[in-house]
Amino acid sequence: MTPAARRALGAAGRLFYERGIHAVGVDLIAVEAGVTKKSLYDRFGSKEQIVVEYLADRDERWRAFLAPYVEAAETPRARILAVFDALRGWAEGVDGVEGHLAKGCSMVNAHAEISDPAHPAYPIIAGQKAWMLGLFTDLAGGVASSGAAAARLGRTLMLLHEGALVAHGLRVFPGAIDQARGDAEALLDAAAARASGHR
After folding, report:
1. Tens digits of per-residue pLDDT, 41-57?
2. Nearest to 57 by CA among 6, 118, 105, 114
3. What is the pLDDT of residues 127-169, one digit of tens each?
4. For the packed helices 76-92 and 176-197, what is the interaxial angle rounded to 10 degrees?
5. How many alpha carbons fall within 13 Å on the CB side of residue 154?
């Protein structure tokens, strides 16, 4: 991607997140990025494709941000809790990274505007959440007593994670991510107790 295209994608991402996808036009993106409207269409082809690349970039950056947290954890339990630690870091900003959740989850926000499965951005939105569910389910396999238990625990952890995202973004109450992490710990304690009872 050329420097101008990177500027355009950065401007589009900021504007889409702050103002909403439907509220932001290509003209504004071009002005904010310091590029011509023609160059935007030459590079991306359409506003829809800019939205696709914005969401794909956001997803890739989250995965890259999350990976070191999970990889550094030494036990299955710690790897699950590391996802919540990464979420807190992503939300609040740590290690020189600016917080990314001032207006909640970008995928949830995008889904509020793009609910048509035929839209080219829809698979990015749904795929990101499916990936998170898969991650939690895989990690739960290290602590659950069976595959069915891991699937159920993965879904419950996903609900905690997504609930924390929404509560944090809406500022429903303080410390939503920390509470979700604490509740995840309690779930893991219960899962470990069940697993030891099956041995």
Report:
1. 999 999 999 999 999 99
2. 6
3. 999 999 999 999 999 998 889 999 999 999 999 999 999 999 8
4. 170
5. 22
Residue pair 151/106 in contact (Cβ under 8 Å)? The answer is no
The residues, ordered by sequence, that sit 6+ positions from 155 with a Cβ below 8 Å of its Cβ are 133, 136, 137
55: enclosing H helix or E strand: helix 47-72
Query: Exposed, middle or buried: residue 107 (CB in 10 Å: 0-12, 13-18, 19+)?
Result: buried
Q: What is the pTM of this model?
A: 0.90
Q: Phi-psi category of 44—alpha, beta or left, where left has phi over 0 and alpha has psi -120 to 50? A: alpha
In the block, tokens 């995840």 appear at: 184
Token pair 């041995």 is found at 199
Token readout for 57 is 């970039």
Q: What is the CA radius of gyration of the chain?
A: 19
Percentage of the chain beyond pLDDT 70 is 94
- Residue 174's contacts (CB-CB under 8 Å, 6 or more residues apart) are none
